[in-house]
Every structure is written in C-alpha cells, then in structure tokens.
Amino acid sequence: PTPPKTPAVETSGWFWPSTGNIVRTFSTTNDINKGIDIKGIKGESVLAAATGTIVFVGAGPLGYGQLLIVQHDNQWLSAYSNLEKIVVKEKQIVKASEVIAEIGNDRSGNSILHFEIRRLGKPVDPMLYLPKLE
C-alpha cells in the first residue's frame, strides 16, 4: 500500500509520518519488524504522527540509527528511526504533522523511515491506527 502524497486528514488521532511506499510491514513472527518501513528520499521531511512531547533524540539501539521518540500521553509513544537530521529537541512539544526530522539511510544504504507506534511500551501495528489508504 502507498500512503497519500499529502498528509491525510486525521481520522484516529494519527497522521502519516512520511509519504513514501511501505516496503516492510509490522510483523511479530520470523522476520520481526516492530513497526513499518516507509521508502523515502534522503532529506525528505518526517512529520510527527500525533501531538506530543519529544522524550528522546539520539543514537538508537543497533539497527535504528538516529532515533526520535514522541510521547503522546501515558499510553502512547511513536518512534522514528534512520534519520538524517533531527530538527527538534528533547522536551519540545510538537503538533501532529509538524516537521520533526529528515529521512536518512538504513544500514543497507536505503533511504527508509522506520516508524513504530507503542502502547504501554509494546509495539502495535501502525496500520491499525494510521488513516486508511485510498
């Protein structure tokens, strides 16, 4: 599936963080992926998927590259990794669809945004929360 070319109108409290094609979906089985991977262009804007507070900016665990985490409330977080440039700081409040970073490269050199939504610390399938694709 391909997200819309412009940020979709919010329907569930969440917005698409990027406009590229989904190249890897959420999976908890053999090839585990705790989020979705969205193809992009290096330097392309990454948007906050919902309003919240930046709680982490920096190097993530192995395979995540530069990582940014937004806390939305007591239950929900969103995480964005493989970032080239981060344009927000920890403790900064961001609005849904505000530019927070730029897409960088994954370990293989592909321009990919890795995006996760977590509820109570556990990864959930972002496709269940993002606006439906047309």
Sequence stretches where pLDDT stays below 50 over 5 or more residues = 1-11
Oligomer: single chain
State the major sheet: 8 strands, antiparallel
What overall geometry do the principal axes of the alpha carbons give? globular
Share of helix, binned: under 10%
Q: Could you give the count of β-strands?
A: 11
- Individual helix count: 0
Alpha carbon gyration radius: 13 Å
The proportion of residues in beta strands is 35-45%
Distance between the termini: 9 Å
Instruction: Please state the average pLDDT score.
Output: 88
Report the structural category. mainly beta
SSE ordering: EEEEEEEEEEE
Walk me through what this model shows.
This protein has 134 residues and is mainly beta. It is 0% helix and 39% strand. The strands form 2 sheets. Strands 1, 2, 4, 5, 6, 8, 10 and 11 form an 8-stranded antiparallel beta sheet that branches. It has a 3-stranded antiparallel beta sheet with strand order 3-9-7, with no helix packed on it. Strand 5 (66-71) and strand 6 (76-81) form a beta hairpin.
Q: SSE layout and pairings?
A:
Blueprint: E1 22-24, E2 36-39, E3 45-47, E4 52-59, E5 66-71, E6 76-81, E7 83-86, E8 93-94, E9 99-103, E10 112-119, E11 122-124
Antiparallel strand pairs: 1-2, 2-10, 3-9, 4-5, 4-8, 5-6, 6-10, 7-9, 10-11
